[in-house]
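Researcher: Here's a chain I'd like modeled. Treat it as a single chain, no partners, no ligands.
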Amino acid sequence: MKWRCEWCGKPHEENDPPCDNCGHGTFEEAVTQVNHEVVEGGPRWVCLDCGRQHQKNSPPCKRCGGSNFERRTGPPEDDPLDDIKTGWLDVLEAKYVLGYVAVALVLGVLLLGLVAGVPLPGFAADTPAGPPQTASPAGSGDTVGPLSLAAVEQRYLDVYNARRSGVGGGTVARNGSLDDAAAYYNKGRVDARYDNAEPPTREGVTRFPLPCDRPVVVSYEVAYDRTPQSLDQFESETALATALVDSYFERGNRIYAAEGGLVGLDIHVGPDERVFVTYVLC
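Model: Modeled as a single isolated chain. Structure tokens:
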């Protein structure tokens, strides 16, 4: 007597389940002789994404990579894709392929920007526009005692030009944009000294509309004990200006070239009578 699987019908010599074809656990007696080959019509697993049929529930699909299988029985269904040998790439819609390509390109550009530092359109670092704000620090930028600091600046320039001419450096004339840049840098140093503010930068100087591309920034400070007297003891703006110029050259500092013959100047007195001087040359 022959036995066959109740589920797929495969014949077996003995009633010894499970079936070695489909794994079913029950056999039945075969009343007629059956073919020893696997009987068509057993269980199969069909990919619901592309229709490919598989013998086992073992995703992913070998055609499209899908993982949604459905168990079916009966004769195998016709699969038109088998006749034309279509692979999983062929069943993708063109719009999705184009989308994947676009995403890959964007990711590639972003990666290039991060790794190689290449500027990206629309992702450029923010560049401040226009001159930076000039601080309003402690002390005074207008007067010291009875003396006008604007007049001290003018007398300073006279004495400084005399020193430049004496060594063949020529004279320089004041320029409004350079004055603004000098005030930004000088008052920024005062603010950083007394109020722990962010110090000024040379990049900030270049954001002013200067008459040259590479300005020279000279900045120094003079304590009252090096002037050599307290500021309220100076009788004139010329006397204070001369003491400030002398203090610069007594330290061995040199005269810088000014190809355009232009200068900006700012003098500010701190709350402890320390005098801050900055000039910018072009």
